[in-house]
Amino acid sequence: MLRRVYIQILDNPTEDIIFSTERFDDSATNKVLAEELQKEMSSSYPYVVSVQYIDLFMDDENEFPEIRELLRHGAINTPVILINGVPKIHGGIPY
Length: 95
Known about the structure:
By secondary structure, the protein is an alpha+beta fold. It has helices spanning 30-44, 65-72, and strands spanning 5-11, 49-55, 80-83, 86-89.
């Protein structure tokens, strides 16, 4: 039985990671990449995967206060991905 997967991309757009390779003509921001992922998942898995891009500093300020604080202090400089509500942080944490 398939279980619905909710992917939330929490981002600070002032720290955009620009994705650009020779395969693509234009570079893309995190928001554009999230929208592309959302389109692809909607067409491939329309009732199973939901993708949501959240701009932490433009949307509801009461959501995700801990992650918002980490981004403000520069502890994280990449988007935080939540899969079914569980944070997945990939790199970008200075030591």
